[in-house]
Amino acid sequence: MRWLGVDAGEARVGIAACDAEERVAVPLEVVLASAAFPAIRAIAAREGVGGIVVGLPLHADGGEGEAVRMARRLGDRLARALAIPVEYEDERFSSAEAQAPAEAGRGARSARPRDDLAAAVILQRFIDRRRGGRGAPP
Question: Coil, helix or strand for 54?
Fold first, then answer.
C-alpha cells in the first residue's frame, strides 16, 4: 500500500510518499502550513495512497507539547475527511537526519527547506518498522 509521510511544522509541511511495496520513501513537496490540509488531501488523491503517517515532534524525553497536539489534530482531521488510516511516528531528530545528506558536498549554499526530506525520513522509519526493521512505535 502507498503511504504519505507528513512532517507538519508551524510554517511549512513536508510531504513524502512510498512505493506500493512499502520499500522506499521519497520526498514529494513542501507546502505552506496554512494550506496543508487541502494540499495533503489533493496529493493523497493524486498519489493514490491508502494511508498517511504524521510525524510526532516529541520532546527529547518523549513528552508531548503543543506541536504534538497540533500534529494529532491534523492527523485526526485527515482521517475523518479522507476515510483512510492515519498513523503517527516519532519524528525526533528526523530534520537533522534529513539535513545531513542534503548538506553533503554543498556546504551552506542550499537554503531550500528540507521538510520534504524530513517527511521521507519519518515515513521510512514507519515502513521499516512495519517490515520488522529498526525503530519503535511512539
Answer: strand
